[in-house]
Design a protein that fits this description.
CATH class of the largest domain in chain B: Alpha Beta
Strand content of chain B: 15-25%
CATH superfamily of chain A: Response regulator
CATH topology of chain A: Rossmann fold
Helix content of chain B: 40-55%
Structural class of chain B: alpha+beta
Helix content of chain A: 40-55%
Number of helices of chain A: 6
Strand order of the largest sheet of chain A: 2-1-3-4-5
Radius of gyration of chain A: 13 Å
Number of domains of chain B: 4
Strand content of chain A: 15-25%
Distance between the termini of chain A: 14 Å
Oligomer: heterodimer
Order of helices and strands of chain A: EHEHEHHEHEH
Number of domains of chain A: 1
Radius of gyration of chain B: 63 Å
Shape of chain B: rod-shaped
CATH architecture of the largest domain in chain B: 2-Layer Sandwich
Chain lengths: 115, 909
């Protein structure tokens, strides 16, 4: 399980929520850090922020799309504001979780992919 | 050899005399005196000689005419003669009443040859032979044959070769009656002698009695009278013809304006009127001051093509003509026979030229074409005959010339309205061109393009070689070239580097400065237009920059037409300089008025274009601001969404855990803290935005309540607030005894903002430090000269201040953005398109707040990739006991936060 967000508040919150659900997520502060992990052997359920400075979620998706073998291992849940939804079209993602979200949104993702 | 000239074979002279009548008169005379023959010589104008036109003789002496009669009735001669003389005495009546039978007693003699006695057709100049002598001396002679032979011998003439020898000869001149030439006062008639009669007696005879000679005299007078009558009749007829011709030409010309028609008619008229071998018609045009040979006939051969392409001559080339026309203004008649060669030489110029060599002519006539006192041309004629142009002919020709002169002048008068029409048409065209130029200028809203169009239009409309526009600078000192149009391309080539584009050209053009203040231009600028002469141009050139001198050098030896370009007739916008390369061309008033009209329009158009450009700039600025605002809304919404997400996430987590009953008090506190922090962040963001919006107008002064505030407390509160969520260590290096005059709330906000920026743009674990130092304002002025309010220093005060600096190791700010970042909504540009967090309002608000607190905020240093230092100063103050209490709350809050996050102190240097 991986949470990718440049904002520590969101990272902390996601970690708190997932911990309550019984998971221990890893975190990444930007796309680059995330991609580094995703290219490893491990499989992740990724909560990916769309808007990050330097290396955005969009870029992560695009880079990953270029490596189908790596992409296959992961499930991508994109966290994005609804007004930015058009930027996500065409991206190879599994689920879109609009910001701001509530715990049940996260639970839905977990129910879908982890049970 | 006889000097007599034989009559022109083609001459129709006989028709000019009433020979039948003369014959009967002469016969009548012969009958009255004892004479056996008589001849009548008449003056021939064309050859100026006396020509024998009639010769009668008694039949018996008339050889070869009627031999039979001579043989048969020879004896009867004398009685008849006697009877005749008797009759004469009895009946002196002048009217001949001749019996038919006697009529044939005297018959015409057709003998000819030099040695015959007065052969028919023989001509005698004055003084030649008996007839010539009689003519010249205007005297009657009574000679014996011997005397006559002596006369002939003296003149080296052959003796008379006849079968008979006359006993005596009587010559009588035929004098014209005086009144005939009374009116013809132009010149005295060369000869008043109309003719000469010679009577002779072949038979031996005692001679004529005086009374008989008187009879002859009377008869001669009678003949002269008849002759004169006839002449007058013919003259009348000729005059009638002339008048008819004149009427014709007079009626033709006012209607026919064709030069070709005119010359045809003139020629026809001249030929009908007088003997002419060559003709030259010259016209003088007052406007062009040139002579035009429009028609010429050289010895009966017309010179073609002159009507369409006349020979053009400067009056200076025909001084003699000019003298005759301008000074003498009268008809010039020259006899050019061999005795007057000097005349030919003196008038050589008139006898040559377009109509060929006329020096062989005998008579030359030059008739000026006069309109009042003006000369509009001339008609020249030559003839191969001498004395051929009589007063009447000259009068007729002069009248004709007058008619055509009037016709030509009329034609010119007609032409004038036509010319006026043409001119008005041309003016209309010029007006249309002007209007289209005006429209072109008015519709252009780009100042540069407009000015180029302006100078080009002006140059085209008045066909100027070069036209430049100089704008008057706002300080009124200099004129700066804005646009140059140069038809020759010389200036362009000179100034324009081969590879340079339009803008470069403009830049070069704009290097041309001309002095205005104190120059002749300033003195003259109130004129609607003026010419700058060489001296004035030199004066300007002396006070000129290099480019200006080069420019002025182009117009050396020329005048410069200058038209000031004014708006609303008052404000001088600039000047239009028009070169006059074509030998100091002077522009016509209408051309200048066109230039002035366009200039006035251009002045307004320039203003309009400038306003338009300003509006466009403002518009572009507005659009930029709009875009910035849009971006701001996007980033602001993102900014807002982060705390909102945190609040929504944590509160939903709290709720869910609460429902499950699995929540621990630590968790509740932690989540609540997160929610409170995020709420604070959200509140600050909203505050920022509303404050920035309220600060919309820069001019609006913020009025803040200023109290002594402890700097350290403010910094710690800010640090703690940020450290709620941050991993970056923030070092606070501030002495607790530093108090500043400020607004606690806004001071904290400024520090929070600056620290937040430092955090945002710094890499993880990048060091962030906030430090403060007390100093004098003058001290700061030494370090940071441009960030000090000198009004305070010059006011004699040097207050103590506290300078606060926030240092980071972030990516830094490019120097060109150093000031921009303090503008509303502007964030430091990023290399990537990804959005940056932050509203872009921070620094704008911070600067406004600090300034409202009497300080300054600036970017002290920034090295891209290494970090930045933002600094501000505020007036230092001492803590006020009562006020201090207000600030205890945030301070204690900060203390709490500090204990919760000990890193702030831990990393401090």
């Amino acid at each position: 399980m991986l949470v990718v967000d440049d904002d520590p508040v969101i990272r902390d919150m996601m970690a708190d929520i997932l911990e309550c659900e019984g998971y221990t997520p890893e975190t990444a502060r930007n796309g680059q850090e995330a991609l580094h992990l995703l290219q490893g052997p491990q499989s992740y359920l990724v909560f990916l922020d769309l808007m990050m400075p330097a290396f955005s979620g969009k870029e992560v998706c695009e880079r990953l799309a270029a490596h189908p073998q790596a992409r296959q291992r992961h499930i991508i849940v994109l966290m994005s504001a609804l007004d930015r939804i058009e930027e996500t079209t065409g991206l190879d993602i599994d689920m879109l979780m609009p910001k701001p979200f509530v715990v049940s949104d996260v639970e839905e993702a977990l129910n879908t992919y982890m049970r | 050899m006889s000097n007599a000239i034989w009559g022109d074979p083609k001459s129709t002279s006989d028709e000019h005399y009433p020979l039948k009548l003369l014959k009967s008169l002469l016969q009548d005379m012969l009958r009255q005196v004892p004479a056996s023959g008589a001849c009548l010589a008449l003056y021939d104008e064309s050859i100026s000689q006396m020509v024998v036109r009639l010769h009668l003789r008694c039949r018996e002496y008339s050889a070869g005419v009627d031999e039979a009669y001579l043989e048969a009735g020879g004896a009867q001669t004398r009685p008849l003669l006697r009877r005749n003389s008797a009759r004469l005495a009895e009946r002196p009546t002048p009217l001949p009443e001749v019996p038919k039978s006697q009529d044939e007693r005297f018959v015409p003699v057709h003998s000819s040859g030099e040695t015959a006695l007065f052969p028919l057709g023989s001509a005698y100049p004055p003084g030649q032979d008996m007839i010539g002598v009689t003519w010249r001396n205007d005297q009657s002679y009574y000679l014996s044959h011997d005397q006559y032979q002596t006369l002939r011998a003296r003149a080296h003439q052959l003796p008379i070769d006849e079968e008979f020898t006359p006993a005596w000869y009587l010559t009588v001149p035929l004098k014209a009656p005086e009144l005939v030439y009374e009116e013809a006062d132009r010149r005295p008639p060369r000869s008043q002698t109309l003719g000469v009669i010679v009577l002779y007696q072949i038979a031996p005879h005692g001679g004529l009695q005086p009374h008989q000679r008187q009879i002859v005299q009377q008869q001669a007078e009678r003949i002269a009278l008849y002759l004169q009558n006839d002449r007058l009749m013919r003259l009348q007829m000729r005059t009638r013809d002339h008048i008819k011709n004149l009427q014709h030409i007079g009626m033709t010309f006012p209607n026919s304006l064709q030069l070709s028609d005119l010359v045809e008619e003139v020629y026809r008229f001249v030929v009908n009127t007088v003997d002419v071998s060559s003709v030259l018609l010259t016209l003088y045009d007052r406007d062009t001051k040139k002579l035009y040979d429009v028609f010429a006939v050289n010895h009966g051969r017309r010179i073609d093509g002159l009507t369409d392409r006349p020979v053009i001559i400067n009056p200076a080339e025909r001084p003699r003509w000019w003298q005759v026309m301008q000074k003498e203004k009268r008809t010039l008649l020259l006899s050019l026979d061999r005795h007057e060669r000097e005349e030919v030489r003196a008038n050589q110029e008139l006898l040559s030229g377009t109509w060929g060599d006329q020096t062989d002519a005998q008579t030359f006539l030059l008739i000026p074409m006069k309109m009042f006192t003006r000369v509009v041309g001339s008609l020249s004629l030559t003839s191969q005959r001498s004395q051929t142009y009589g007063p009447l002919e000259i009068l007729v020709l002069e009248t004709m010339v007058q008619v055509i002169t009037v016709a030509i002048e009329n034609a010119k008068l007609y032409e004038r309205p036509r010319l006026a029409l043409k001119q008005s048409k041309r003016r209309e065209e010029a007006l249309a061109a002007t209007i289209s130029a005006l429209q072109a200028i008015s519709t252009v809203l780009n100042v540069r393009e407009l000015l180029h169009k302006f100078v080009e239009s002006v140059a085209n409309l008045i066909k100027a070689e070069m036209c430049s526009f100089f704008q008057l600078m706002p300080d009124g000192k200099d004129l700066v070239a804005q646009a140059v149009f140069d038809r020759t391309g010389k200036w362009n080539a000179y100034d324009r580097a081969p590879s340079s584009g339009h803008d470069d050209h403009d830049e070069l053009i704009q290097m041309i400065h001309l002095p205005f203040q104190g120059s002749p231009l300033e003195k003259l600028v109130d004129e609607p237009f003026f010419y700058l002469e060489e001296a004035a141009l030199d004066e300007i050139a002396q006070n000129c920059c290099e480019s200006g001198t080069i420019f002025l050098r182009e117009i050396r030896n020329q005048k410069l037409l200058v038209v000031p370009v004014r708006r609303y007739q008052t404000d001088v916008v600039g000047i239009l300089a028009i070169h006059t390369p074509q030998v100091n061309r002077i522009f016509q008033p209408e051309e200048i008025s066109v230039v002035m009209a366009i200039s006035a329009q251009a002045a307004n158009a320039i203003r309009n274009a400038q306003l338009f450009e300003q509006i466009q700039e403002a518009n572009a600025e507005l659009q930029r601001m709009d875009k910035v605002k849009d971006e701001f809304i996007v980033t602001a919404s993102h900014e807002l969404r982060t705390p909102l997400s945190a609040i929504s996430g944590y509160s939903s987590l709290l709720k869910k855990q609460g429902e499950n009953g699995r929540v621990t008090p630590q968790q509740v506190l932690k989540y609540a803290n997160k929610i409170v922090g995020s709420t604070q962040q959200l509140k600050d963001l909203v505050d920022n935005m509303t404050q920035a919006a309220r600060m919309g107008a820069l001019e609006k002064n913020l009025e803040l309540e200023l109290v002594p505030s402890q700097l350290l407390a403010a910094a710690q509160t800010a640090t703690n607030m940020l450290n709620l969520n941050l991993e970056q260590p923030i070092t606070v290096n501030i002495s607790p005894d530093l108090w500043v005059q400020g607004n606690t709330l806004h001071l904290r906000q400024v520090i929070t903002n600056l620290l937040d920026n430092a955090v945002k743009y710094s890499p993880p674990h990048g060091r962030i430090e906030i430090k403060a130092r007390a100093m004098r304002l003058s001290q700061l002025a030494e370090e940071q000269a441009n960030q000090v309010d000198y009004d305070i220093l010059t006011g004699g005060e040097d207050p103590e201040i506290v300078k606060v600096s926030i240092c980071d190791e972030g990516e830094g700010i490019a120097p060109e953005d150093a000031e921009k970042i303090f503008e509303k909504f502007v964030r430091a540009p990023r290399s990537l398109t990804t959005p940056v967090r932050g509203t872009g309002l921070g620094l704008f608000i911070c600067r406004r707040f600090i300034e409202a607190m009497g300080g300054r905020l600036w970017l002290e240093i920034s090295i891209p990739g290494r970090g930045s230092i933002f600094s501000f100063y505020l007036m230092r103050t001492q803590p006020a006991g009562m006020r201090e209490q207000d600030d205890t709350e945030p301070e204690s809050e900060a203390q709490d936060a500090q204990s919760a996050y000990p890193t702030a102190e831990g990393v401090g240097r």
